[in-house]
Structures are given as structure tokens and as C-alpha cells.
Design a protein that fits this description.
The protein is mainly alpha-helical. It has one domain (3-189). The protein is 72% helix and 0% strand. α5 (79-94) packs antiparallel against α6 (107-117). The longest helix is centred in the first third of the chain and has 24 residues, at 51-74.
């Protein structure tokens, strides 16, 4: 049906709206791609722009993952199409057509998409991230552990093979996008949540995200 490619294409376009770049531009803050880690995501915005900008970025990234899936539900599409819509929104964040295909790592958008697929799935992933973050104070480690467990949650909490496969591919990409963070974690060089004052971020040269 014609609605299927339109829904998937629309999900990609919505995912391409880079919340970090938009929020920073509206608030007169540095482009997140040019400071800190160079990653246009909430964690880097927190370091360079403060809590308000980070919260707005996080909310925007989650919402753009959740919204297309909800629209898919309204159209009554199959689980396979819903999984494709969720994955398309995630890919839009990673490779945004509106911002030179240079996007973020996709954690918040992936979470929003999973929350759209299943509230229980979203809750399980969120609790995993929160517990890991509380214990370690590392956002990247929280994302890595959540990504590893997400496909397992998808299978046991939804019973939909399409969701497990879609979440599985999403998790693999998240792990790949965080390979630099993993190396820094192993070297003891990864920044903890909230670490690094604005001045420090501005003085530090961007490193590979």
C-alpha cells in the first residue's frame, strides 16, 4: 500500500530534525557539532549549553522517535511496518538529510521509538539506563548496556519477532556508534555525567563522536 512507504519516509524525515542543533541555534548556543565530543545529542548539549538546553534536546529526540510509530498505529499497519517505521526514525537521527547526514548517536530517538512500539519495552530500557547511570555516572555505559539488553526485552515483553529484529539492528548500530566511548571507558578517559564546565568544553578540541 502507498501508505507504507509514506509512513516510513515520513519517519525518516521526522528523525532528521536534529533537536540538539535546533535547540542550540534557538538559544544562541554553540553548534554541538563544533564543541565537546562533537556529537549533536543531549549529553554533549548538557556539557556545552546547560541543563535546560539538554532537557529540551532530550525531549525532542525522544518525541521524534515516538511520534512516527504512534502515527503508524493510527493507520493500523502491521508489526513489521511499525518496526520499519521505528528504525527509519532512528536512521533519520543518525543520518539527517537536513543537516548534511551528520547526526547523533541515536540513544534518545531509539528509546522514543521503542517506547512507541511497547510501553513495557520503553520502561525496561529506561530503567536499565537509569540504574546503570546512577551506579556508574557514565551516560555512554548506560547506553551500551541498555542497547545490549533491548532486543531481549523486546522478545520477552512483546513476543513480536519483527520488534526483536528491528530493535536488534538498532542495538547493533548503537553499539557501533559508541565504539569510541567504549575505548575511552576502557582507558578511563570517558567523561562522567555532568562533568566538564562550559569553559572546559570550549577549550577542548572536538574529538570523534
Amino acid at each position: 500500500m502507498l501508505e507504507t512507504p509514506l509512513l516510513i519516509g515520513g519517519a525518516y524525515l521526522i528523525g532528521s530534525l536534529a533537536s540538539a542543533i535546533i535547540v542550540c541555534k534557538l538559544m544562541g548556543l554553540p553548534d554541538p557539532r563544533s564543541v565537546g565530543s562533537g556529537n549533536p545529542g543531549a549529553t554533549n548539549v548538557l556539557r556545552s549549553g546547560g541543563k535546560k538546553a539538554a532537557v529540551l534536546t532530550l525531549a525532542g529526540d525522544v518525541f521524534k522517535g515516538w511520534l512516527p510509530v504512534m502515527v503508524g498505529y493510527l493507520f493500523g499497519v502491521s508489526p513489521e511496518v511499525l518496526a520499519a517505521i521505528a528504525f527509519a526514525a532512528f536512521c533519520g537521527h543518525l543520518f539527517p538529510v537536513f543537516f548534511g547526514f551528520r547526526g547523533g548517536k541515536g540513544v534518545a530517538t531509539a528509546f522514543g521509538a521503542m517506547l512507541g512500539l511497547s510501553g513495557w519495552l520503553g520502561l525496561a530500557v529506561l530503567l536499565t539506563w537509569l540504574v546503570t547511570a546512577a551506579l556508574s555516572r557514565y551516560s555512554s555505559l548506560s547506553a551500551l548496556i541498555s542497547a545490549l539488553l533491548a532486543p531481549v526485552y523486546a522478545w520477552f515483553l512483546t513476543g513480536e519477532m519483527a520488534y526483536m529484529v528491528g530493535v536488534g539492528f538498532t542495538s547493533l548500530i548503537l553499539l557501533w556508534r559508541h565504539r569510541g566511548n567504549l575505548q575511552r571507558l576502557m582507558n578511563g578517559a570517558e567523561d562522567k555525567i555532568g562533568a566538564g564546565a562550559k569553559a572546559k568544553v570550549e577549550e577542548s578540541p572536538p574529538r570523534e563522536a
